[in-house]
Amino acid sequence: MGLRNLLYGAYERRLIARLPQDRLPRHVGVMLDGNRRWAKANGADTAQGHQAGADNISPLLGWCEEVGVEVVTLWLLSTDNLNRPAAELTPLLRIIETAVAGLAASGRWRLNPVGALDLLPAETAHRLKEAADATRDVDGLLVNVAVGYGGRREIADAVRSMLQEHAARGTSIEELAEALDVEHIAEHLYTKGQPDPDLVIRTSGEQRLGGFLLWQSAHSEFYFCEAYWPDFRHVDFLRALRAYAERERRFGS
């Protein structure tokens, strides 16, 4: 085991040394997928799988800090997941609440809840807002905590917010239709004011977005990793960065 760790460490250092600092992402989105399958593969119950996944969040944020990432978006719970049986959903929400509280207590990162908080139980929404308030002045990595998040819902919420804003100004539908452009909608997204994700990582071998950052990821690069999220290691993250750095970004062309 000692030799294996030595070789593993040497490999990590080589990967880090070869990363071009001018070709690293500013914003990384992560789909933390595979907790339940990890639990099944390891003879654990579902809650233990979700807890193992939660335990891997802080290390990831540390890795992002080390390479100068400015924004991380973590998809912890989708709007579809809210339809899971209460026996699974309730423990998952408690795990998320505890994990977010722990991230806030560290004082290292600025937390920003994104998602349809009105669809969440009141206690969960309160805990997320509390974490955001507690870290509002932290000068560190910005971490979007996506809970009760769905890409289609986000776009619908953005359009609704935009319409309400213009209605309050007295703008007519005809005037709005004439002036409407992409930026008008972008200004009302959950991530307004942030750079779009340069790199989106999904663990567990699934190769689909599933509704994650649908609007923002139009020009993102994607990296699909076979490891279940609880098994996602530093070396896996470095490989994702290497793959990103090696690509020629075309931005839709």
UniProtKB/TrEMBL annotation:
PANTHER family recorded: DEHYDRODOLICHYL DIPHOSPHATE SYNTHASE COMPLEX SUBUNIT DHDDS (PTHR10291:SF43), DEHYDRODOLICHYL DIPHOSPHATE SYNTHASE FAMILY MEMBER (PTHR10291)
Pfam family, one: Prenyltransf
Family of the protein in this entry: Belongs to the UPP synthase family. Z-FPP synthase subfamily.
Designated name of the protein: Isoprenyl transferase
A GO BP entry: polyprenol biosynthetic process
Entry annotated with the keyword Ribonucleoprotein: no
Positions of substrate binding: 34-38, 50, 78-80, 84, 202
The keyword DNA repair is assigned to this record: no
Active-site residue list: 33, 81 (proton acceptor)
NCBIfam families: PRK14828.1 (NF011403), uppS (TIGR00055)
Known function: Catalyzes the condensation of isopentenyl diphosphate (IPP) with allylic pyrophosphates generating different type of terpenoids.
Record-linked HAMAP family: ISPT
Gene Ontology CC annotations of this record: plasma membrane
Annotated cofactor note: Binds 2 magnesium ions per subunit.
Binding site for Mg(2+): 33, 221
One term of GO molecular function: magnesium ion binding
Keyword line: Magnesium, Metal-binding, Transferase
Enzyme Commission no: 2.5.1.-
Oligomer status and interactors: Homodimer.
Cofactors that this protein relies on: Mg(2+)
